[in-house]
Amino acid sequence: MNLVNSGELGTGVHNFFVFHSSLPEKKLSKKYGNLFTCYIFCIPFVVINGFEIIQEALVQQGREFAGRPYLPLIEEITKGQGIIMAPYGRSWKQQRRFTLTALRNFGLGKIAFEEKILQEAQYLTEVFQASIGQPFNPNSKITSAVSNVICSIVLGKRFHYEDEVFTQLVELIDENMRLQTTIWALVYFVTPLIGYFPGPHQRIFKNQARINAFLQDFINQHKDTLNGEEIRDFIDAYLLEMEKEQNSPNCCLTEGNLMQIVNDLFTAGTETTTTTLQWAILYMMAYPDIQESCQKEIDQVIGWSRTPSMEDAPNMPYVNAVVHEVQRFGNVAPISVGHATTRDTSFRGYTIKKGTMILINMPSVLSEETQWKDPKHFNPGNFLNENGEFFKPDAFIPFSVGLRACPGEKLARMELFLFFASLLQNFEFYWPDKTSTPDLEGVYKLTLAPRPYKMAIRCRKPSDDEL
Ligand code: HEM
Fold it and tell me: Where does it localize (predicted)?
């Protein structure tokens, strides 16, 4: 048993068997308390629920909970490199520190990223505009726009939405994310020996090899044209730092790590933001009065003569509150990324053995009754005070907290605000099918996404004569 009671018995820790990967954690925490152990085929993992106890684990005992679980399938793909699934240690620290610095230097929080995002929002608006008149599924268009932001930061170029290399890359990444939530991934987790036999898991490896081949091409092109005088993008910055540090004995900057970080930024940076924007549009169709209030504020603060900018955010408390509420209610990363203990850890009177998988139950915080004014409904009021001013409750932690907290948070927040405000400035979104209403239940594929839907749009922008 992994969670060993070293204190008093029965203080909310329970052990039982679970044979399914999609857990009804909310119901379980009601029944078993804020800290309990589950088993997947006899392999234990500890589930942590609620703001206070999650803070305690990830922040106050941050180092002890900063590991990642050993998952044979992921290990086969990443070889422990990169950031997301890298074990806690020197290499992870270096990759993470370098990535945060590079993102900051390229303009995280500065104008450069804002321009890239706005340029992409403009393309997305044009593509939506061309679809007026026919209900359509916005998913692939939003995915293209969001992954293009990552492409321009990491690879130094954006792609046409129909570009063959680009669409293949996006599809392969998407398929691999989906395959990693199938029963096969679970079987691989328990019996890694199936890696030697045929089965759908082989498709994951095949897809990954193709993704890596695409990315290796880009890395090679960068190496051939590298020029210390001009850093074009993330790959350039990493290669130059590798060159500089090559004789340093503790340096973990390697081409293998570079490849895995590029993979990580694509996977983490595209799916989460795309899914949040899909929820945003779906909620706007489900709650047209909220959509209208957003548009009123956009019209007042921005008008028609210019595009939105991050400087508008403090003057747009309602839109800002809606974007945050989309993240809270949409809950796109319900189990965050799995954590693990980095050593035998004493926690709330219990000893958790080194390497135990830790599951952070995000909905237990994002809809915790004691933390929110209206936890159960989509209500921007959760982020507005009595004077209609924006405020952010401490329990708003969709990017997690502690040493592993999302390093892409600032970029993601910029993308969400600018894409959302640009789309609502230009279009009214409405549910095209009069016989049904938007389905607000999600489906889980590493992120919690809306079921595929079709939407209809009307152009809001007055003609030049009317302006
Ligand atoms: C709405 C958008 C996003 C959400 C909700 C989100 C959420 C998260 C969460 C919950 C984690 C796990 C934290 C933990 O283990 O405790 C994470 C990790 C991570 N995210 Fe994000 N993320 C978003 C966008 C991005 C973007 C745009 C990037 C890249 C530029 C990014 C890069 C990463 C990376 C590299 C990690 C791994 C950090 C580590 O293991 O040290 N994410 N994110």
Answer: Membrane
